[in-house]
Amino acid sequence: MLWSTAAGAQQRDQVVLQLKHTHQFQFAGYYAALEKGFYRDAGLDVTILEGADGDAPERAVLSGRAQFGTGSSTLLLSRLAGKPVVVLAVVFQHSPYALAMRQQGSVPDLRRIIGGKIMLGPQAETLNQADELVAYLRKEGVAPERLDRVEHSYNPDDLIKGRVDAMSIYTTNEPDYLDRAGFPYDIYSPRTAGIDFYGDNLFTSEHEISANPARVKAFRAASMRGWQYAMSHQEEMADLILAKYSRKHDRQHLLYEARQMVPLVQPVLVEVGYMNPDRWQHIADVYTELGQLPRGASFSGFLYNTDSGPNLAWLYRILGVAAALLLLGAAVHVALLARERSRADEAIRKGEERFRTMFEAAPMGIALIDTVTGAFSDLNPRYLEIAGRTPEQMAACAWTDLIHPEDLPDCAMQMQRLQEREITGFRSTFRMIRADGSTVWVEASVVPVDANKPGPRLKLCMIEDVTDQKETEALIWQQANFDPLTQLPNRRMFLDRLHHDIVKSRRDGSRIAILFIDLDHFKEVNDTLGHHQGDVLLVDAARRIGACVRESDTVARLGGDEFTVILPALQDAERVEAIAQNIIDSLLAPFTLGEEQAFVSASIGITLYPDDASSVEDLLKHADQAMYAAKGAGRNRFSYFTPALQVAALNRMRLTNDLRSAIKGEQLRLYFQPIVELGTGIIHKAEALLRWEHPQRGLVSPLEFIPLAESSGLIVDIGQWVFDESLRWVRRWREHVHPEFQVSLNQSPVEFQREGGTYDVWLRALRQLDVPGQAIVVEITEGLLLDASTMVTDKLLQLRDAGIQVALDDFGTGYSSLSYLNKFDIDYLKIDRSFTRNLAPDSSDMALSEAIIVMAHKLGLDVIAEGVETPEQRDLLAAAGCDFGQGYLFARPMPVEEFDALLQAQVTNTAAG
Questions:
Q1: Each residue of 820-846: pLDDT tens digit?
Q2: Pairing of strands 426-433, 439-448
Q3: Which ranges in 46-125 belong to alpha helices (H)?
Q4: Helices in 12-144 by DSSP H: which ranges?
């Protein structure tokens, strides 16, 4: 069987597909054909190669290094330059090439680029996408000679940072990065000027078609099948590209690229691979206008015939003879027609009838417009339907009466340019007013009826109803700029408005206040009442915040429970405090959520422009720091940014950076504090405590660096290090001190609740060192049980199944109830030191401690008292039945070497006794 499999692989034809760029979703159809076995089923063994530049596929195919390649519409120029390239299929029905410019003003204007720096493509290449864009620029009245063209870097940062004023882009690629950077931009597409090129095309050589016709047909069919699959399984293909081809782009970008490709590939409207000779003729006409092709150039043989057989030369010869006979017959027929005028007139009449039938039944609106009088001289039914008017109503109005007043100036200007022969035609999208007052979006194409006459009066206007498309675009814009839950501006729109407000502030010298608002205790609402009720609260909170500001102010939701407010044109700084306090007071009122009520408060950070910073990035950072200062001060308050906050933030950042290298730099130290059995005084338990010995700062308190480790995610690696070290020592102590020695490890709630985290690594380490799970006790807080999700429950069950015990730390200070203790498998309760500190025979703390001990024993739990510092406390706890004690009376936390020596001394003393 292995031999037959190998033989089958050897029988498949070895072919190479050369791409024109690096791996990305642009070539997903070929990956799908390879990975889903479409090529294999066609008897092909295909290798897909990346391309370093746009000409790489053509060079590879013509030299024989590759049999197939991907190319743009410039393949037509190559063919007419004598290169034997043949287009097999069109993948992109519309070209993705466009120009991107920084957004300036409310109305896009391409002519702003005149005199500016522009990247169009590699300057060394003569055939590239620059041809398409150059034709567009010329058609829009922008002569390329008036531009400062620079070498293309293909880096959107050059546009964002102002190194260039415009650059050519793929509409499937760069806009995603511009959006992520919050950069305001306009896109100018050649299609708006009627220049509609094909995009990516699959091509081969005449030699390959003549030598291997069956292979060419099979490769094309398998590739198109792959494209159909790829466009229907976008997420699967994005994961495949990341796994097997390239990680240059992240998953979010690949899916963005896939979505943008849908209107370009049009997999639903046309068969993938379809190519229209008339479209290629249109492309040839554009090249002719650019002076790159002679007028009337023929591209015969350039388009692949999917129905062609393996060798039809004999048929062509027969057809040639037949054509000659037809020509002879035609000559005779012409002679007869000369004597039969009446029959010719009848044929013309029937032709006119056919044209009229096509005119009347055309799916698009068609009309003739007299540009002098503005009147309509002929209209088909579809035009009347789109315009929403009767023939009588249309006869009583001019074309200018139908166009929305806001769109009329641009249309009138374009019509004037057409009348003065500055342009040969134009396409425009505008709103048309119907007789009932409603509006409809139309895309119009206008050309002169007789272009050879000077100042032709009649114009042919063809319109399509694109209202649905415009509404879809509006919806997409809404979704891209507004939060779908609260309908407030999202981060992208917030940044755009802040940029505009800063520009205005610089112009008129006013100030701006930015408020960062974070809802306190919102997580508890989500956890207890559910995310649906949490969403209801967020919507109501957005409404309340909006009611506290002016209409000219901006309220945005950045995500989660974070809101921001921009207060522009600030005249009185005291007004900021009044607004902040109003927001706090408004949010303090109870939120009605179904049959429940929820209470939250707000922490607000305030920063001022230009007082605190001059850049957007610094303003947002400072507002965030001020908000956290408000939280740290007790919540339900506002705090202004101060330089001291920046210093503290900088210190936290530096300390976090130092913490990243603490493990590798062997700066972490493990200390142990004994847990003493009160009945015997024997130590066979200990709590592992972490210390950080910083090379410059010395010993850093856990209270300072543990929160940084939690917020940065370093707590996971640090927790693993603590476990590994503790496991090494507990193994030694179980062998040499006590066979049931246990070490308690504190688990951060962040570490315990992280998504996807399990104890599999711990369990493998226990098995490898042959240490039972009972050697480890995990200490958790009561808050974990209060917020216990399915994930927390599953982890507790995993610990139980492995034999690892669980201790509830600081018991008595939180909110746990007996139901929680009964529900979860807890092994130890640790009485908080606040009870132990004030123990006296008749004190309330003594009564509470006794109650905790009795309750724990009834539930089968052992009790450890923390903070035991005096013999009297020890004796009272022992008399109350407490099992273990921990505190300075027995020993302070000490380095592991000292603790090991203490245990060895205990062993020696026990043996001597």
A1: 676 777 899 998 888 888 888 888 889
A2: antiparallel
A3: 56-63, 75-80
A4: 28-35, 38-41, 56-63, 75-80, 130-139
